[in-house]
Amino acid sequence: MAKDKFKVAIIGAGMIANAAHIPAWKDLPNDVEIVAVMDVFEANAQNTAKMHGIPKAYTNAEKMLEECKPDIVSVCTPNCYHKQYTILSLEAGAHVLCEKPVATSARDAAEMFDTAERVGKLLFVGQTMRWSGNVIAAKELVDLGKLGEMYYAETASLRRRGVPKWGMFHMKEHNAGGPLYDIGVHSLDALLWIMGNPKVIAASGATYLKIANRDEGLRTSLADSGAPLGLFTPRPYDYREFNVEDFGVGFMRLEGGATIYLKASWAANIAEGMGGTFILGTEGGLKLQPLTYVTNMGSYMVDVTPHVPQERQVAFFGHFKECEHFVRVIRGEEKELLVKRAEALNVMRALDAIYKSAEVGHEVPVEDVN
């Protein structure tokens, strides 16, 4: 493919588009140019276009796709609209970078990937934790066999008071779920990737709404709620609209006998340092933050701290890396996407089973949900 610039369009002009996707695409000036932004709220689209110097702003995605004919589309809408805009963009001839979770069910996600394959375009899911230096190093240690047989792991993304109040994250009709979909999906994806993507076969889960649907009168940090660069087109927040979980847990059985425990919260009475990820194996263990390899040396137990090179100091670093990677794969300069269809569907099936289990009150085999 010639080294021409790709035309990029943005669907959804909320925080993640303004703070992550748009800056990441603009960081590739020799490869891409952003030609348009679309949002169902005209003020959001116009303000985003003006702020970033984007030539055109739309409130209708079909019109934007028809008139601008983008090569790549970033889908940055609330979760419940990922499927419709991804399929619309793929069928219009664009490759798609879709924010996580790729959909609100594995069935919808499979239809999205089926569409991409049918039209000969790429669908790339934004699982940005895979570009963390510690995650990459942990995967290398696992791939080298340093852990032996992995039989148990825990991962947790926990905020004490970190409800994202600038959009519609807290509304089930727009996002379907709460922190399990918002931040839990990142930690689960990264853990399964490190472990070699073992298939999740069953899950037992529970969801709670205990704190975030009341007014505590607290002053909270935007950075603690996932907006380190502040807000760009905030929507007025009303805690009385909150109807997703503020805390969710899931226990998963994997093919081969290993198990995983997942926790995710936007609001919980927790002390600092209660989150994180670790893996237990027969020959060693891994803790992700700080990265620590636990093993034996001779007749002594030892903890090894690998030196991981410093990452580029920029907010939403993973989005910069994923956009660069996506361009290289489209150009044929890299062989395949880092996040593959089977991996994305494995994560979605696990989350489907967790939410279903929370609803029915017992363990659910993944095959019974999809």
Overview of this protein structure:
The chain is globular and about 65 Å long. It is of the alpha/beta class. Helix 5 packs antiparallel against helix 10 and helix 8 packs across helix 10. It folds into 2 domains: about 120 residues, NAD(P)-binding Rossmann-like Domain (Rossmann fold); about 210 residues, Dihydrodipicolinate Reductase, domain 2. It starts with 5 loop residues before the first strand and ends in a 5-residue tail after the last strand. The longest helix has 20 residues. The strands form 2 sheets. The protein has a 9-stranded mixed sheet with strand order 14-13-12-11-7-10-9-8-15. Strands 3-2-1-4-5-6 form a 6-stranded parallel sheet, with helices on both faces. It contains 10 helices and 15 strands. About 50% of the residues are buried. About 35% of the residues lie in helices and about 25% in strands.
